[in-house]
Design a protein that fits this description.
CATH superfamily of one domain: Immunoglobulins
Strand content: 15-25%
Shape: globular
CATH topology of one domain: Immunoglobulin-like
Structural class: alpha+beta
Number of helices: 13
CATH class of one domain: Mainly Beta
C-alpha cells in the first residue's frame, strides 16, 4: 500500500492563526472548517499502519472511525472513496488508504452462529450467521457505520470466514443481524447493549456502547444499503430508553442518560447517545422525553469539566462527547440550544459571533487542532491520540443518517397469468406490498385496483380476481392506502396485460385439424322382448372409425 501524504506547512500556518480565536468574537467559518478537515485527513493518512489499520490500541474502533472520515471526505468532494485511477473523474487521493483500511476490517471480522432471542429472531436473511468484530458491540457498531456510508453495496465484496465471498450489502446485513442478536433481552437489559453479545441472558448493559450500535444500524437501514431492521428491535429500544433515562425529579441528572442504570454516571456523552437512540426509535424534538434530554444538555453545556460536561472552556475538550452529541442532535433535527442559560437558543454547532470563550462545537474543535493536523489526546483515547483526532474531525462534519419520520406504503403486485385469454380469470396478488411506517409499521387497509378496462374495485385483502371480456392491451395499477403515514397512499407502475383473442372455452374447431383416427370397437346387445323373460340372444361387434377432435374444454 502506498500511503498518501501532503505537505502540511500551509495548513500549519493557517491552524496556528486559528488559535487567536479564543480572544476574538468570530466563529469558525466554512473555509477554516474545510482546512481543518483536510489537514486532519492528511495527518491520519500518514499514520496508517502497514496492515491497513490505525492506532496502537483499539485498532478496530480507530480504523473504523478513520475510515468513516475518509469516506465522508470523498463524498464531500464528489469522489469515489475507492477510485485510485488518476485519470478517472472520481479519483480520490486517499483511495488506497481507504481500501487498505477496509481490508484490515475484513481480516478482523468473524462469522458466528446466531439464533432466536427472547423477543424476536435476529436472523433476517435466514443464514444462521452474524458477523462481528472482536465479539465487541463497540467495534462492530463502528465497523457497520463505516461500511454503510461507503456507497458500494453491490459492486464491492469481501471474504468473511465460512460465509465466503459476500457483497458489502450482504456483509452489512449480517453485521446488523449480529447486533440484533447481541441486544439485551431480559429485565433492565432489554434493548440495551453490553460490550459483548447478550444471548438470552441477564447481564448489565451500558449506554456508552449502545449509541455506537444504533449509529451503525441507522446508517445501514438507509439507502443504498437498505438493511432490514425488525420492528421488535425498535420496540426493545423503546423499553431501554425509558429505563436508562434519568427521571425528572428536580436533581441535576434530570433527563440525562445513565451508564448501566438511570442514576449512575450521567453525562453529556451518553445523553448524546440517548438522543440519537430516541431519533432512531422515532421520537421527534417535541416528544417530552426528548425535551427532557435536551434540557439536560443545556444545563450542563457550560460545565467546566469533561465529565459530565464536554470541556468547552478547557485546553483539551472531550472529543468523543462532542462527536456523539453532534450526531444525536443532528439526527434529531435540533439546530439550536440555549448554550449559556440566557433563555435564548443559539446555534450549538457554529455560533456567529461566538461567546468568549467559544462554546459552540465547531469553533472549539478548530481552535484546539494542533499544527500537525491532529488533536491532543483526550478522554478515552487509549494513548496515541488517533481516536481523539478521529472523534474531533468527525464532530466537524455535521452529518447523520437521513431520517424518515414517516414513510408511505409500497404498492407491489403479481399476476397468475401473463397473457390471459378472453374470459379467463386472473389472480392479482398484492401480498408483497409493504406497509407504511410512522415510528412503527402502519398496515395497509385498502387495495384499490384499476384493471384498465373500465373496471375498478377496492378490497381490504391483498388478493382479487378479474377477467377480460374483450381481447386487447390493458394497463393494470394498484394503489394501496395506509392511514397514518405521510403520504398515506402509493400507486404501482402500470403493468401491461395483453389479452388473447381466443376465449376461455375455445371456438368450434373444424375437422380438418384432427390429428388422429382411432379404431373403436362398439358392442351392442340384441334383446328379444315378449318371451317369458327379456333375453339377450345375440351380441354383435363391428369396427367403426370416429374422428377424435381435440377441443378445449371450459375448465372454469
Amino acid at each position: 500500500m502506498q500511503k498518501k501524504t501532503v505537505t502540511l506547512a500551509l495548513f500549519a500556518i493557517l491552524l496556528l492563526s486559528m488559535t487567536v480565536l479564543t480572544t476574538t468574537a468570530r466563529g469558525a467559518d466554512d473555509g477554516e472548517i474545510e482546512a481543518s478537515g483536510a489537514a486532519a485527513v492528511a495527518y491520519l493518512a500518514s499514520k496508517q499502519s502497514i496492515d491497513g489499520s490505525w492506532g496502537s490500541a483499539n485498532q478496530i474502533a480507530t480504523t473504523g472511525l478513520v475510515l468513516l472520515k475518509f469516506v465522508v471526505r470523498a463524498q464531500e468532494l464528489g469522489l469515489d472513496p475507492f477510485d485510485n485511477d488518476p485519470l478517472s473523474p472520481t479519483y480520490y487521493e486517499y483511495a488506497d488508504n481507504t481500501t487498505a483500511g477496509f481490508s484490515y476490517l475484513w481480516s478482523s471480522a468473524s462469522d458466528v452462529p446466531i439464533g432466536p432471542q427472547t423477543n424476536g429472531d435476529p436472523d433476517t436473511n435466514v443464514n444462521g450467521k452474524g458477523i462481528c468484530f472482536g465479539d465487541s458491540v463497540y467495534y462492530t457498531g463502528i465497523a457497520l457505520t463505516a461500511l454503510a456510508i461507503s456507497g458500494h453495496p453491490d459492486d464491492r465484496s469481501a471474504t468473511i470466514g465460512t460465509l465466503g465471498l459476500l457483497t458489502y450489502r450482504e456483509i452489512a446485513q449480517d453485521i446488523a443481524d449480529w447486533l440484533y442478536f447481541a441486544q439485551g433481552d431480559i429485565g433492565n437489559d432489554r434493548g440495551g447493549f453490553n460490550y459483548d453479545a447478550l444471548d438470552n441472558v441477564t447481564e448489565r448493559t451500558d449506554n456508552s456502547n449502545g449509541g455506537y450500535a444504533y449509529l451503525g444500524l441507522a446508517f445501514a437501514e438507509d439507502p443504498p444499503f437498505d438493511c432490514t431492521v425488525p420492528d421488535w428491535v425498535r420496540d426493545e429500544l423503546n423499553i431501554y430508553i425509558d429505563y436508562i433515562q434519568n427521571d425528572v425529579n428536580g436533581d441535576t441528572n434530570d433527563g440525562g442518560s445513565g451508564y448501566d442504570n438511570p442514576n449512575g454516571w450521567v453525562n453529556i456523552l451518553k445523553t448524546g447517545n440517548l438522543i440519537f437512540e430516541m431519533a432512531f426509535y422515532g421520537d421527534t424534538p417535541d416528544t417530552p422525553r426528548v425535551q427532557d434530554a435536551v434540557n439536560y444538555l443545556e444545563r450542563h453545556w457550560q460545565d467546566p469539566n469533561t465529565d459530565p460536561g464536554w470541556g468547552y472552556s478547557l485546553a483539551v475538550a472531550n472529543y468523543q462527547a462532542k462527536f456523539l452529541v453532534e450526531k444525536g442532535l443532528t439526527y434529531m433535527g435540533i439546530t439550536e440550544l440555549d448554550t449559556d442559560g440566557d433563555g435564548i437558543d443559539e446555534d450549538w454547532f457554529n455560533q456567529e459571533p461566538p461567546a468568549i470563550p467559544a462554546q459552540d462545537i465547531a469553533s472549539v474543535i478548530v481552535q484546539q487542532q494542533l499544527p500537525s493536523g491532529s488533536w491532543p489526546n483526550s478522554d478515552w483515547d487509549g494513548g496515541d491520540g488517533l481516536l481523539s483526532t478521529a472523534w474531533a474531525v468527525l464532530a466537524l462534519e455535521g452529518f447523520a443518517p437521513p431520517r424518515e419520520l414517516a414513510r408511505a406504503p409500497k404498492a407491489v403486485f403479481t399476476e397468475s397469468i401473463d397473457t390471459p385469454k378472453v374470459r379467463e380469470q386472473v389472480r392479482f396478488d398484492a401480498t408483497s406490498s409493504q406497509p407504511g411506517w410512522n415510528h412503527t409499521d402502519i398496515p395497509i387497509t385498502e387495495y384499490r385496483w384499476d384493471f384498465g378496462d373500465g373496471n375498478k374495485t377496492t378490497t381490504n385483502t391483498p388478493v382479487t380476481y378479474h377477467s377480460y371480456e374483450e381481447a386487447g392491451i390493458y394497463y393494470v395499477t394498484l394503489t394501496v392506502y395506509a392511514p397514518g403515514t405521510t403520504p398515506d397512499t402509493d400507486t404501482s407502475p402500470a403493468q401491461r396485460k395483453t389479452v388473447s383473442t381466443v376465449p376461455v372455452g375455445g371456438y368450434t374447431v373444424p375437422f380438418s385439424i384432427v390429428t388422429t383416427a382411432t379404431a373403436l370397437t362398439a358392442y351392442f346387445a340384441l334383446t328379444v322382448v315378449g318371451l317369458a323373460s327379456t333375453t339377450t340372444v345375440a351380441t354383435v361387434a363391428t369396427a367403426i372409425y370416429v374422428r377424435r377432435v381435440k377441443r378445449r374444454k371450459d375448465n372454469q
